[in-house]
Design goal:
A hairpin with a 4-residue loop joins strand 8 and strand 9. By secondary structure, the protein is an alpha+beta fold. It is 20% helix and 30% strand.
């Protein structure tokens, strides 16, 4: 059993394949965290609650209750009564007093995992996951708090979420509801998070955990341009293969806070949940509030083990799309090829040229609707501009499909332009504070998706287009943050609910979309990578990684993204040079090799590139078909990072049965007077031999993993190469190298 309860010790034991999580209950009913780490054979460690030393428990030392609350390693800390560390739950009663205290009442264990209403969340069959519900109560507030733990044994993952129920007769006001807390002794931890900005998302940042609070958060209404809803604490000198890692990741796409706090006593509290800034939820009598889910994992084998646990978990228990392992068409998007300057003839010219080179889908990006000839109008007016698309959308789609290609389309359903017919009729549909002119970003406002009539309108705009023609793919974009937070549909004391209600509205719309169009390939996007998070993965199997398509910039962006996300989730394209963001020129081969680490497509005008580059495309598309399944299903290993070495960037994807592995190396900057560089492969069978395709060279698995392989022959800046190692007992046709 994954979950056990010892009545004598008053302890819960949650076991995955390699880890154990222990929870204890004090005599008073305080739910305490005992241990999270390597798997234990037996119950034990209850002494780690330190209830037998000063300040003791309130039952034994009532005069020091606040001192007890400030050191007790609690599973779900509440605010206002003496625990001065970061709380997870702050509540004001109907008289305005802030304070709560929850006590254990009972527990429930069930096979499987309950659905979280209105929220994206992990799932699993009854033989794959077991769920513990620890039910607590605040008898003064007449509030029930259910702590939910779902244990996924095979993937070494435990998910956590919290449900708050008002069982009293008066309203409660939630001012903070985090989803998870982890209290531990400090181990000289270092904190890892992902930071950045537009066009440089998810850079890996690592620093020593100082005294006080260190946090990453967003109050922008989106999750992940500047900071990311992920945090890991690692022991000193942790590498890809060694060291301890405690990691949390939030299945949510809006405002968040992830924080680690080192206290005066060298304890550490790690929390993650909806950002409390601007949040206030009125919980009326009889109502409940469900917090989003947090994914926890522990690794005793470094960051690489953490990465592969996240990858396996998201592929098996979060991504629902039929395209998870299905072949996704190689697409060409017209955005960087034409921007807003296109018509039917131009799109068909791109499609014809692309089809000849083995590309399988044309995606029509922004500019096909309303009077949209620049980014300053028409959002909300989702009617086809037939001056651009002569004969209408069905005519264009038919012509593209007659070429033997699929068709995809771009939408930004959450937005409204001040210069739009929709805004002229419904200015109140934009999020705004009455009496103030709302601020524009990219000449647009945000629709108030907390309102059902607005969601219905926005959804029907998308669905009507999809019903009009056989469209295979949708890119769902969101190009600005939320500001001027106000909704005329919410009462004065409910305005603090807007950001979360907005996010619930987005989830509702995307759920409707994938339900009505189950075979649709949906790719989420948010000005590039501003909403690249597990919440979006629940609806779309891939997310546009960044608007920066430069291959060298993508090395760092994709390294940070792949730290926690499967490669198949990363939207990655081969784009034109000089690159439109940074102006860099890189070899066409390197652009393709880097994009192969993601979903793979093109973002250029194929009618204008050189013949030399055009001739390389059939070979690149063949590589995608050859390695697609490996990249979608295999184990990812980070071999070298140019952000550390300033020269070589290298990663590997190995088949789970160790039958073959693909190694990608990029020489970022050439260096004078150097020899070949040695790398050590991972995930092979040490007892078997492997041939390097295209070379005739044969190596033993233990040679490649323990002695290493020499990278040589890379000439010039930005040069790259793929190395495909195939186990000798595997018969496989050699492909292009």
């Amino acid at each position: 059993m994954a979950i056990q309860f010892d009545e004598k010790r008053n302890m819960f034991k949650l076991d995955t394949k390699c880890t154990t999580y222990l929870i204890g209950i004090s005599k008073e009913g305080y739910v305490g965290h005992i241990y999270y780490g390597k798997r234990l054979k037996e119950f034990g460690g209850g002494y780690l609650l330190r209830t037998e030393e000063f300040p003791f428990t309130p039952e034994a030392n009532k005069r020091e209750k606040a001192a007890f609350l400030d050191v007790y390693p609690t599973e779900y800390p509440t605010g206002g009564l003496g625990d001065y560390r970061e709380s997870c739950l702050d509540i004001r009663n109907s008289e305005g007093y802030m304070g709560s205290e929850i006590f254990y009442k009972e527990y429930l264990v069930e096979d499987g995992k309950p659905h979280l209403p209105g929220l994206p969340a992990s799932f699993g069959e009854k033989d794959e996951v077991q769920t513990l519900q620890i039910i607590c109560e605040d008898p003064i507030l007449r509030m029930r708090v259910t702590l939910m733990y779902s244990v996924f044994e095979e993937e070494d993952i435990i998910t956590r979420s919290v449900k708050i129920e008002n069982q009293g007769e008066k309203a409660l006001h939630l001012e903070k509801v985090y989803s998870a807390c982890l209290d531990m002794d400090n181990q000289e931890f270092e904190m890892i998070d992902l930071c950045g900005s537009w066009a440089r998302e998810r850079y890996i940042q690592r620093e020593k955990l100082r005294y006080g609070r260190q946090r990453v958060s967003s109050s922008r209404g989106e999750s992940s341009h500047q900071e990311h809803p992920f945090m890991a604490l690692v022991t000193p000198d942790t590498t890809q293969e060694t060291g301890e890692v405690y990691a949390m990741h939030f299945v949510y796409s809006g405002n968040f806070t992830a924080q680690a706090e080192r206290t005066q006593f060298d304890y550490v509290r790690m929390v993650l949940g909806i950002c409390a800034e601007g949040f206030r939820w009125n919980l009326k009598a009889g109502e409940s509030f469900q917090a989003p889910e947090v994914v926890l994992t522990y690794s005793a084998e470094g960051l690489g083990k953490m990465t592969r646990s996240f990858h396996d978990f998201y592929r098996k228990h979060l991504i629902r799309s039929p395209y998870l392992y299905k072949k996704r068409p190689i697409l060409i998007n017209n955005w960087e090829a034409t921007y807003f300057d296109f018509n039917t003839e131009k799109l068909l010219a791109i499609a014809k040229g692309a089809k000849e080179q083995g590309i399988e889908m044309l995606v029509m990006d922004d500019g096909w609707f309303g009077k949209r000839n620049f980014d300053d109008s028409s959002l909300g007016d989702w009617t086809v501009n037939e001056e651009k698309l002569k004969g209408g959308l069905p005519h264009l789609v038919k012509q593209v499909r007659d070429l033997g290609m699929e068709f995809g389309i771009w939408f930004e359903p959450e937005m409204i332009s001040p210069d739009s017919d929709l805004y002229r009729v419904h200015p109140d549909w934009a999020i705004q504070i009455p009496g103030r002119e709302p601020g524009q970003i990219r000449a647009q406002y945000v629709l108030d998706l907390s309102r059902q009539e607005v969601r219905d309108y926005a959804y029907e705009c998308v669905a009507k287009i999809l019903r009009s023609a056989p469209i295979s793919y949708v890119k769902w974009d969101m190009n600005r943050q939320l500001t001027d937070l106000g909704s005329i549909a919410l009462l004065a004391d409910a305005q603090g609910e807007l950001s979360h209600r907005y996010m619930l509205g987005v989830y509702e719309m995307q759920e409707r979309l994938v339900t009505e169009f189950p075979d649709l390939l949906l790719e989420n996007c948010s000005g590039g990578g501003a909403r690249f998070d597990p919440g979006m993965l629940y609806y779309s199997p891939q997310i546009w990684c960044s608007d920066d398509t430069d291959a060298i910039e993508r090395l760092r962006i994709q390294e940070g993204t792949a730290l926690i996300y499967p490669l198949s989730a990363m939207g990655a394209h081969v784009s034109d040079c000089p690159n439109h963001i940074v102006g860099r020129r890189t070899p066409f081969e390197t652009r393709a090799n880097v994009a192969l680490a993601g979903t793979f497509g093109y973002e250029l005008d194929i009618t204008r590139i050189s013949e030399e580059e055009k001739k390389q495309i059939p070979g690149q598309t063949a590589l995608y078909h050859k390695y697609r399944e490996l990249i979608q299903k295999g184990d990812y290993y980070r071999i070298a990072s140019w952000t550390d070495k300033k020269s070589l960037d290298c990663w590997e994807v190995a088949a789970k049965d160790a039958s073959h592995a693909l190694v990608t190396c990029v020489q970022v900057l050439a260096q004078p007077n150097i020899h070949s560089r040695k790398i050590k492969l991972k995930g092979l069978d040490k007892e078997k031999t492997y041939r390097l395709e295209g070379s005739g060279e044969v190596y033993s698995g233990e040679e490649l993993m323990y002695c290493g392989f020499l990278i040589k022959g890379l000439e010039g800046d930005f040069a790259s190469r793929l190395y495909h190692f195939v186990r000798e007992d595997v018969q496989e046709e050699e492909g292009p190298q």
